[in-house]
Every structure is written in structure tokens, then in C-alpha cells.
Design a protein that fits this description.
- By secondary structure, the chain is of the alpha/beta class.
- The chain has one domain: Rossmann fold, CATH 3.40.50.
- The chain contains seven helices and seven strands.
- The chain has a seven-stranded mixed beta sheet with strand order 3-2-1-4-5-7-6, with helices on one face.
- The longest helix is centred in the first third of the chain and has 20 residues.
- The chain starts with a helix and ends in a 7-residue tail after the last strand.
- Bound molecules: S-adenosylmethionine.
- Keywords: Cytoplasm, Methyltransferase, rRNA processing, S-adenosyl-L-methionine, Transferase.
- It comes from Croceitalea marina.
């Protein structure tokens, strides 16, 4: 599989961005031989399962110039790295509790010469600072995630969509979201036709969520 699948859905990329998306594959193939940052089964499907899936968030929210975005539990850099390629004017902070994953993320950032990302080895609860948006995939159930990230979203929003959390989720979310009355769920098959996206969604939780917690 090649980066063409990304270019099919994101047609206005610069030459630099296209080159970065192409380069991603060999960087991850190399790193995955040393440290398992992407599951063995998924590495061959990197562009669909990791890159395009991460970019699903961009179909819901285009980040403004100067916006600050935190990727919580980034693991090998998802969704943060693909989003940082797509939005070079936005500042991304990637955090993970496991140091060796952050080491790989740092190497990939360097390999792609991305200047809009900083990576931190920390639990998110211990990370200082506030952000416009928090993005994430496969880290915790929503109540736990909201608890961990409490106070980390700026109150004043300069974006079309209010500041908040954009979380990549799959499956039936009825139970998980029952306490979040103003959560919005966007189905990714609306944007991507590959079977992988059949049950995939982006959950948007505005900063002033009405939670019965
Ligand atoms: C299943 S992995 C997902 C990685 C990546 N987001 C992805 O989708 O490929 C979950 C990651 O969350 C990290 N994590 C879990 N709890 C965390 C916390 N409280 N603060 C920071 N990272 C955390 C773990 O170390 C792990 O790398």
C-alpha cells in the first residue's frame, strides 16, 4: 500500500507534505523492526489503519494557524504525526507515558523534519499547559479520559468549532457517551470508502460539555 490513498482523500497537499507522507512508511517500517510501535498486523496497512484514520479528525476540524493541539497517549505518533503534516501552521504537543515510544516519535519527527511538534514522556495528568484541542485514539474510555485531561483545554475559543476533545472511537458508543449530552459523533464512512472505516467514528466533546459526573 502506498501514500496514494492519502492523496486520494487530501488533494491539496504541497510537494513537501506529499514527500513527508511517502517517507513516513519507510521510517515506521525501520523503527518497527527495533521497537514494536505499530502492531505487526497493522504495519502493512499503515496508510489506511494509522495515517488515514488519524486524518479522519481533519475531516471534522481544520485547525487554524497558531492553534495548539495536544495528542494524548500518542504511542507511535497517532493521530498527532499525520495531523502535524497536514497542518504545518498548527502547534502539536504529543505525550505518552512510555518513554521508548516517545523516543521513536522523536526520531520520526526528525526524519520528517517536522518543526511544529514537540514530544513529551509523561502521563497527561502531569503535563503542564492548556490547549485549544485535544486529539486521541485508543487510550481510555471517555469518563477516564475526561478526568485525566481536566483543565487542559483553553476556555476562550478562536475557532469555528468550540475548543474541545476530538477522539477516534469505534463501535457502539451509546453507553460510553450517555453522560455527555452535547457530544457529537461523526461517522468516518461518510468520508472514506475503505472497509476498515465501517464502524469508525470521531467523537467531538466541546469544552463546556454537560456531563452528569
Ligand atoms: C493503545 S495505545 C494507542 C497509541 C496511539 N494513540 C494509537 O492509536 O496508535 C495507548 C497509549 O496510551 C498511553 N497512555 C495511557 N495512559 C496514559 C496517560 N495517562 N498519559 C499518557 N499516556 C497514556 C500508553 O502508554 C499507550 O502508548
Amino acid at each position: 500500500m502506498t501514500a496514494e490513498i492519502v492523496f486520494k482523500y487530501f488533494t491539496d497537499l504541497t510537494e513537501i507534505q506529499r514527500a513527508q507522507f511517502i517517507r513516513l512508511n519507510s521510517l515506521y517500517q525501520d523503527w518497527n523492526q527495533k521497537i514494536n510501535v505499530v502492531s505487526r498486523k497493522d504495519i502493512d496497512e499503515l496508510y489506511v489503519r494509522h495515517v488515514l484514520h488519524s486524518l479522519g479528525i481533519a475531516k471534522i476540524q481544520r485547525f487554524n494557524e497558531g492553534a495548539q493541539v495536544l495528542d494524548v497517549g500518542t504511542g507511535g505518533g497517532f493521530p498527532g504525526i499525520p495531523l502535524a503534516i497536514l497542518f504545518p501552521e498548527t502547534k502539536f504537543t504529543l505525550v505518552d507515558a512510555i518513554g521508548k515510544k516517545i523516543k521513536v516519535v522523536e526520531e520520526v519527527i526528525e526524519g520528517l523534519q517536522l518543526e511544529n511538534i514537540s514530544a513529551h514522556h509523561s502521563r497527561v495528568e502531569d503535563l503542564p499547559g492548556q490547549f485549544d484541542f485535544i486529539v486521541s485514539r485508543a487510550v481510555a474510555a471517555m469518563p477516564t479520559f475526561v478526568h485525566w485531561t481536566k483543565g487542559k483545554i483553553k476556555k476562550d475559543s478562536v475557532h469555528e468549532r468550540k475548543n474541545g476533545i476530538l477522539y477516534l472511537k469505534g463501535g457502539d458508543l451509546t453507553n460510553e457517551l450517555k453522560d455527555y449530552k452535547n457530544a457529537q459523533v461523526f461517522a468516518l464512512p461518510e468520508f472514506f470508502e475503505e472497509d476498515f472505516f465501517e464502524t469508525k467514528k470521531v467523537v467531538y466533546l466541546p469544552q463546556k460539555y454537560k456531563a452528569n459526573l
